[in-house]
Amino acid sequence: MGGPDDNVKTVPGAPDLSVRLRRSGRARRITLSVRRVGGEAVLSIPKGVSDADALAFAASRADFLRRHIEAACRPCPVGIGTVLRVGGEPVEVVRGVRRGRGPGTLGVIAGPVGPQVARVLRDEAAASLGPAVARHAAALGRSAPPIRLRDTKSRWGSCSGRGGLMFSWRLILAPPPVLDYVAAHEVAHLEQMNHSPAFWAVVARLDPDHRAAQDWLRAKGGSLFALDFTG
């Protein structure tokens, strides 16, 4: 939600660009980002930097803004008739007498569709991620760490300092090798809490084909975050 430090300004151009200014007490420099879903441009401004200087920074990167805004995914509501790829298989959302998976279908009962679909997908993600994490952990001589599933806005997974893993349940909508790569990536953080060459060596040991999964996430991951399960 917006607050007193959030406001939208215009960067002149052809066409003009709208940028949300967000002051941050933790920021050390001006940063410019574009949300993957919706294409909103956000300018994070540290203390001591004026709006004018921040907007000048944004204007100097207008080409970057336009490229990323054009590439952003528009929200895509999930409803009856929507076809999703779940675990690599096409699945159509249908109205039925019970909620859950069927042959080529994902059934929902009376009521809002999106939240019911999300609940089924979350269960499917847990059923796939749990074994994947356990397998990769075992390959490192570790017991399976606890995992949590969330509906994140941009991150596919994370590893806490205490060794707990978090994953986006939307990974179940990606091809199985992509889900497996993210599981391997986060398990590798149990060995290396960084992205050093040593970390990537662990990832490569767990998933020799991880680069293909990375390419898929870069090219198509945004489309998964664009799916709107609120209605």
What is the gist of this entry?
This protein has 231 residues and is α/β, with parallel strands linked by helices. It has helices spanning 51-60, 62-71, 113-139, 176-188, 197-206, 210-225, and strands at residues 6-11, 17-23, 31-34, 41-45, 76-77, 83-86, 89-95, 100-102, 105-108, 147-150, 157-159, 165-168, 227-228. The model is unreliable at 1-5 (pLDDT under 50).
Shape: globular
Strand content: 15-25%
Tell me which CATH architecture of the largest domain applies here. Answer: 2-Layer Sandwich
Structural class: alpha/beta
Q: How many structural units, i.e. domains?
A: 2
Largest sheet geometry = 4 strands, mixed
Q: Write out the CATH superfamily name of the largest domain.
A: Metalloproteases ("zincins"), catalytic domain
Mean pLDDT: 91
Order of helices and strands: EEEEHHEEEEEHEEEHHHE
| Spatial separation of the terminal alpha carbons | 19 Å
* Share in helix: 25-40%
Unreliable stretches (pLDDT < 50, length at least 5) are 1-5
Query: Number of helical segments?
Result: 6
Count of DSSP strands: 13
Q: What does this 3D model show about the protein?
A:
There is one protein chain. With about 230 residues, this protein is of the alpha/beta class. The protein has two domains: about 5-70, no CATH class; about 110-230, Zincin-like. Helices cover about 35% and strands about 25% of the residues. The chain contains six helices and 13 strands. It has helices at about 50-60, 60-70, 115-140, 175-190, 195-205, 210-225; strands spanning about 5-10, 15-25, 30-35, 40-45, 75, 85, 90-95, 100, 105-110, 145-150, 155-160, 165-170, 225-230. It has a four-stranded mixed beta sheet, with helices on one face. It has a four-stranded mixed beta sheet with strand order 6-7-9-8, with helices on one face. Strands 10-12-11 form a three-stranded mixed beta sheet, with helices on one face. Strand 3 (about 30-35) and strand 4 (about 40-45) form a beta hairpin. Helix 3 packs across helix 4, helix 4 (about 175-190) packs across helix 5 (about 195-205) and helix 4 packs across helix 6. It is globular. The chain starts with 5 loop residues before the first strand and ends with a strand. The model is unreliable at about 1-5 (pLDDT under 50). It comes from Palleronia sediminis. InterPro entries: UTP_pyrophosphatase-like, YgjP-like_metallopeptidase. This is M48 family peptidase. Pfam families: YgjP-like.
